[in-house]
Structure prediction request, 230 residues.
Amino acid sequence: MLRSLPRVFIPGATPNGPIDLPKEELDKLRKVLRLSPGAEIAVLPNDGTLIQCRLQPHHADPIAVHLPDTEPRLHVTLAQALPKGDKLDEIVRACTEIGVSRFLLFSSDRTIVKWDERKTLDRVSRLQAIAREAAEVSFRTRLPEFAVVTNLAAVLRACPEAVVLSEVEGISPSLSASGEAVTIVVGPEGGWSQIELKLIGNRGVTLGPRVLRVDHAGPAAAAILLLQGH
Prediction:
């Protein structure tokens, strides 16, 4: 039954009283989903719980609190070099549905697109909205986090457990996770530069004999790790 309830994220919501619904969420519930007062909905406070509620004209009345087991036990971070066009939108959407917990965005030596401060704020805001929608659709109870770092070196310093997808010939290690957290690093369309390959060192891993597009590599790697019982 819980899986069939319309879901909205209201970070910080509590079941101790009526839950105020932001106008955009009310519009979605009433104008898009055509729900009437009295319909049951799920409010997600972004803490792993689900508050089953009854919709009212301007708020939601809590009925019960649940702890759905939908979040993966493995904490996966996707560190993604900025790709061209709208590929990042699809990467975030797919990886959120699969279960990625955090996104690190960075520029690599061969990154073509450049984000200034204003564009970074706008793009991250858009990606957060995409992730929010994907999390609601896929019945997640926590939203993925976003951060922007400068380059590959910064990613590797911040994430000692990181493994890097690489196309270098002769790489034998396949993608796996031995602990509770792993960071998957995916490069840009043009691949890694020679300087970056030296930084990667023995962290390079492969998904197999074929080369995947940049917008497929991250979701494929996340699926390998997260759709096997994690």
